[in-house]
Amino acid sequence: MIVNKPKKNKENSRYSVLYIIMFIMMGTIVAKLLYLQVYKYDDYKEKADVSSTKFISEEAPRGNIYDSEGNVIATNKQTYTLTYMETVDSTKAFYTTMDKVFKILEDNGESFQDDLALKVDDSGNIYFDFKTDSESSKRTLEIRFKRDRGLNEDIEKEKFGDKEGDYTDEEINEVNDALMEISAEDTFYYLVKSYDLYKLLLPENYTSEQASELAKKYKDATGKEILDDLLKEYSIQQIRRYIVIKDAIKMGSFSGYSNITIASNIKRDTAFIVYQQLNDLPGINVSLKPVRYYPYGTLASAVVGYVSSISSSQKESYELRGYDVSTDLIGVSGIESAFEEQLKGTKGGTTVKVNSQGRTTEELFKLESYPGNNVHLTINKDVQYAAQEALKDQIFKLQSEGLTSATRGAVVVIEVNTGRVIAMASYPDFDPNDFAIPSELSTEKYNEYFNPDLEEFGTKHIQSSGAKGTLDELFPINEDGAREDKYDLYPRSMFNYATQGLLPPGSTFKPLTALAALTEGAITEDFTVNDVGLWTSEYTGNQVLENIQKIGNGITDVRKALQVSSNYFFYETAIRLYVKNGANIDALNSIARYAWKFGLGVEGNKNASTGIQIFENFGQTYNFVSWRNSLAKNAKYSIVPDLEKGVYYGYTFVPFDISDISTDSDELKELKTSLKDNIKETLLKVGTDEQITSQDEYAKSILSTVKKIMEVSDKYKENVAKYEADNNTKVDINSQAKIVSNAIAYFTVTNQTSEITSPISLVQDAIGQSMNAFTPLQMANYVATLANGGTRYKVSIVDKVTSPTGEVIQEFTPEVIESNPIDPEILQIIKDGMRRVNTSPSNGTVYQLFGNFPIEVVGKTGTADFGTSEQYEFQGRKAYGNYISFAPMDNPEIAIFSTIYDGNRGGNSAYIHKAIYEAFFKDELLNINPNYAATSETFQKYVSQAPADNNQEAEEQNQQQEAQGEVQQEETQQEQQTE
């Protein structure tokens, strides 16, 4: 029998062959890898460097901003920029290269781009300089600074080891607290070590062995030890320069940038010096970059706005919109901000091959950048210049005459029949060119704009104005340790007073009161009063009010009342309106119903806006609901001081405290809040079916809360002990609770309710006081609506948006918001009265300006109070100087409102109007009188000296830019041929 055996040997031999083949293949691969990566490393590395690709981004120019005549208000100019690209050669020669670059810049009076918040002063002190006066913002910026540079990593490792996953909010806060304990000096030491600055000690042409030895020497050294050695050969300022560049490289790498900017906006001569030395400056390149440019500087700065870097709080939002938050600039205010999406261009760039020195050897792909769209304003450059310069000069004139607190103002000019803004000025202004290159905004300029020295300003203000308030009272130190402008006394350049400043209109409001009363039939054209100066009425509890002149005006009708600005007449007019409309709650809105039609506030929840395209505040006129809401909201502040004194009207009690105190127990805080909310809610019911009318019933309803506060409050117990000791008596808590409850009930149900429902506020409203507060823009729109007979237009400061090739993308045509035709006879009465303001010799300033002006101008002065005489003295302020006008009288074209804060008299701002009319009606005035210019100082100053037109400048600039581009291209080609 034959048995077959398995052929094990043959199978084993097959596997052996397979193993041998695999071994040979793997060996071959490993050998090849060793050959390529070790033996031939230098050769292939050089080839890789020579042919490596980079994407060179190209900035897109923002669109232009033009005035109504095509003059360029904002554009771009091509500037030379010095950049650095990391390559093998440039990295090896970094310090040598930077030394040469710094010398070129210094020799030519240029500065390198320095955005690093870690500074070193002239004495060698290291500190952080975050451009904000808020301690909380400084903390946020400092933490972000340190996290971006990795200082948090060691802290996290020490505290949490190798924890996986996200950190909790508590853990993040713990790390942040630890980061804040790292001083500026220690941060500097960290960067010295992190950026390997020990390499500064290497010789110029160092070998790899020398580099290796030095690296070993400083491997375990601290940043301070490395810095100490560096300071033997370099100053700390020089060392910081290298850190600035190294830091920019690191921060740029986060955004995937191969190029970082060394210097911006360098001169052409400097650029060509660099060109000539490019072969000795590996990694350095010079390119042309568009930079925002405002040819007229401060002209219309409040309208145009400015561009700036993206703030840390906005980064996430703009990243999602495709912005590079590390380099892109955005519009921050004005048109630049409101039309950001239109103005910003589309970035382009070129993918290129570069050699080991960072020089372009071949262009692979180019993505064209595309300019942004253009915005055409309704602003007229010449009228804007007259408005802006006259406003500034008048403020300076008032200061020279002793009104030192007159430091702010605004003026708005509106086209009567379209709602288009012809001019808008705010003072103080600013130069938007200061922000075009963020790194060039000096600390001094930044502080002037955003972080003023309020201690210095406050001291000067008190000395010059005679303010009775102390520095700490007017400019108290807040929780962050910085002074704050509690009463808004500092003139702010970055605040558009024309669209954001809310102020009382004063007597410039009287034409509206006259219109309401004449239309309602509360008065007639022939109605007169005997103005004796002091006015009383049974409807206001016989409260005595007076004329601003402190004297009477005799028999006065509506025309004379406007001419002499008789408060007496308009007080009486308001009461007649009140009675005419029922002498009830609804009658309190007798004037408000007309004010709303003219854009002076809104009724209810309607859209609170003039329609202008830039940011605005929007003020409200006196009306019952708004007044009630205001008093209800502020009641808790009004009653507190009296309760703390222990005396309110006929009630005397142990001082009782309901103010917010951080050390109060939660129970006490809740009780105090409950009582104050009760007062507020009770007042909000005034004028409704739920209004509480019984003082006794209200006192009973709050008694338990008041008593409980007394039992819980340690401060109240201290007050009781002191009261008992001072008065040698025993305090009964139950009795005290009843007295305090009755005092609060009297305040709420009697005092505040009476103030809410009294027509005294309507009376004060009639002369532009009470709670009236409007922006100059609202006021100008009101005057324009009055001038054209009752048609209120949507205000516009933009005419159209066009593409770079001139196609109209969006057009802003005049839009009627509301039409309330004014009876022509009534309008003529008001015009007559306003014309008398300007033609009456007794009106001094305005008569001198417009009494003999060739074009009939109607106007109204307004000396508007913001508070009591005690408040004026305490703050060192004066009344607002307001003035309204429109012209020509019979066929109005433009309307104007101007204000000078602390201008003291309305007539003090009328001077601005004359300059505006001369600029707007220039041709007509010269046609009437060819010698007019020689007879008018304002014409010579504000019309004849207006800046030249530049509507051809853009085309010429583009041609210049193209020529510069051709020069650069030719030089680059020559450079490549040389290489």
TrEMBL record:
Residues 58-363 form the Penicillin-binding protein dimerisation domain. InterPro entries: Beta-lactam/transpept (IPR050515), Beta-lactam/transpept-like (IPR012338), PBP_dimer (IPR005311), PBP_dimer_sf (IPR036138), PCN-bd_Tpept (IPR001460). It comes from the Bacteria. Keywords: Cell membrane, Cell shape, Cell wall biogenesis/degradation, Membrane, Peptidoglycan synthesis, Transmembrane, Transmembrane helix. Residues 957-967 have a biased composition (Low complexity). It is found in: Cell membrane; Membrane. Pfam families: PBP_dimer, Transpeptidase. Residues 409-614, 715-916 form the Penicillin-binding protein transpeptidase domain. The chain crosses the membrane at residues 15-35. Residues 943-979 are annotated as: Disordered. It is a single-pass membrane protein. Residues 968-979 have a biased composition (Acidic residues). The keyword Kinase does not apply. Belongs to the transpeptidase family. This is Penicillin-binding protein.
